[in-house]
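hiii so um. not sure if this is the right channel but i have a protein structure encoded as tokens and i wanna go backwards to a sequence. like what aa goes where. can anyone help
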């Protein structure tokens, strides 16, 4: 199963949803897809979806999927990586009114250069990415949160 997650900020990502519908219509995607589509106005005709889902349902769907297709939100990407999922990330772009600027390009590029995800900067490359991601090997994500907390505690407790 593929889990599409578009976050909960007040931005649409109609362009990605339309592309997924197009690929399904053309028989290029046959897997089941569930989408958390947020504020997108476009309602996919080939994808089971909800605008928003509760945390427990999100975790349940994430546990069932093999692949996550995400916008370039750090939280969505890291959540998928922590669960050991392969991720295709596509940046929201300001020119399509998907965000206020193009910062998601830089975020996705950093994840990609670290060997953690497959980035798709042009939706015309999504079909190819879907074919290739199954065979790709990614670096296992390791959280640095514990080290950061230890550093902060050490700093606070030092005299």
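sure thing!! here u go:
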């Amino acid at each position: 199963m593929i889990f599409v997650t578009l976050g909960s900020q007040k931005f649409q990502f109609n362009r990605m949803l339309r592309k997924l519908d197009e690929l399904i219509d053309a028989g290029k995607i046959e897997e089941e897809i569930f989408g958390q589509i947020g504020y997108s106005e476009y309602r996919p005709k080939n994808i089971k979806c909800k605008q928003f889902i509760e945390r427990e349902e999100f975790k349940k769907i994430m546990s069932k999927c093999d692949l996550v297709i995400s916008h370039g939100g750090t939280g969505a990407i890291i959540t998928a990586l922590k669960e050991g999922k392969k991720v295709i990330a596509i940046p929201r772009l300001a020119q399509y009114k998907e965000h206020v600027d193009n910062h998601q390009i830089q975020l996705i590029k950093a994840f990609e250069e670290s060997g953690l995800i497959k980035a798709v900067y042009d939706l015309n490359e999504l079909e190819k990415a879907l074919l290739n991601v199954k065979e790709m090997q990614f670096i296992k994500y390791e959280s640095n949160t514990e080290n950061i907390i230890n550093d902060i505690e050490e700093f606070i407790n030092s005299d």
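oh and The two ends are 53 Å apart (CA to CA).
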